[in-house]
Amino acid sequence: MQQSAVSKLSPWIRHRLVTEQEVLARILGAHPTAETISFVQEVFWRSYFKGWLEQHPSVWDRYLVSLDIALENLGNDYSEAISGRTGIACFDHWCAELIQTGYLHNHARMWFASIWIFTLRLPWELGAAFFLIHLIDGDPASNTLSWRWVGGLHTKGKTYLASASNIARFTNGRFEPLGQLTGSAEALTEAYDHPLVPLPPAQSTPIDDAMLLVTQEDCTPQTFIADRPLGILGIVSSTNTGLAADFTQHAVSQASDKLVISDDWTTAIIDMARHAGTNRVVTAYAPVGPVATALAVAKTGLSKEGIELHQTRRPYDSLTWTHATAGFFKLKKKIPQILHDLDLG
Ligand SMILES: Cc1cc2nc3c(=O)[nH]c(=O)nc-3n(C[C@H](O)[C@H](O)[C@H](O)COP(=O)(O)OP(=O)(O)OC[C@H]3O[C@@H](n4cnc5c(N)ncnc54)[C@H](O)[C@@H]3O)c2cc1C
């Protein structure tokens, strides 16, 4: 696979070790606009997916329910797929590459997902979960919605079909799975509507006299929510292990005074807040996904102890997510205005 045309920045952007706004500022400051258009649009795809899932949270809830059902009905074909023993050389190669490096080029992700859904005929939720565990840029929004896009659920009825000739062309002939891939991709369907839910209002100004909580959703929160926090607690779930989990732990730990690896976030936050002598905890707004769920649970427990948990949203998110209600085109049209509002264009 030729990888020269990609930045490989996604693990850093996904965990906000570097933000979308910083990447855009750097690229637009260094190159003429005409040369940067496609890269700038790529960065906005991330914002689009995040904003769209935030406003259609039932997609994530439904994905989790369907995943549980699929996990109860696993067969040999699934085991062969996730251990790279399907006999489709390119697919088996990408499977190993994903597990060993935590990264796949966007083309490989699309081909992999397409083969998984249409040739191997496995539930898309299992493939999405497999990616989420192994990708070091694993992201609930980009991942779930990309899998749904390949399967024809995001842009309803429009699927992505991997073909031997396309794979041969973009892998310089290294792989050409002639006769091994299905030639048709009938769009997946689902029995649920996913209504648009308005964005919850969010605070975007700093909060004083607070303990700062760092999660994998944003590893540079000091830059916008608390200049001088009374302590910085990093917290990650203990559920996952492996390369991607290691990356996440390092990302969170370098941003905090203390790292806790636990599924009981409530107790860890209460202990640290008491130690810091405050009843205010502030963290970066967590978009739909496991962190948002863990914070919602913790908020209830904290409030019983008289501790407030505030989530502060980056202005960049509020600015971009507002336009992520339909297809990408709607946000794309607003890119010049958004860049202007951010003082970048
Ligand atoms: C099935 C599937 C699953 C995916 N899962 C994830 C995931 O879990 N996490 C994730 O970050 N991306 C995911 N993507 C999107 C995309 O593949 C990666 O963001 C991209 O490959 C990252 O590599 P890069 O940094 O070299 O990208 P570049 O091509 O250098 O792009 C620059 C930046 O733009 C953003 N970007 C580019 N393309 C996309 C895209 N299609 N969607 C969202 N953001 C994009 C990323 O932040 C990236 O770092 C998935 C795509 C598919 C088809």
Total individual domains? 2
Mean pLDDT score = 95
Distance between the termini: 34 Å
The CATH class of the largest domain turns out to be Mainly Alpha
Molecular shape: globular
Put simply, the count of helices is 15
Q: What topology, given as strand order, has the largest sheet?
A: 3-2-1-4-5
User: Low-confidence segments, ≥5 residues, pLDDT <50?
Assistant: none
Residue share in helix: 40-55%
Content of β-strand: 5-15%
Gyration radius (Cα, Å) is: 21 Å
What is the third-level CATH name, the topology of the largest domain? DNA Cyclobutane Dipyrimidine Photolyase, subunit A, domain 3
Order of helices and strands: HHHHHHHHHHEEHEHEHEHH
Features of this protein?
single chain; DNA Cyclobutane Dipyrimidine Photolyase, subunit A, domain 3; 2 domains; binds flavin-adenine dinucleotide; Rossmann fold; 5 strands; alpha/beta; 345 residues; globular
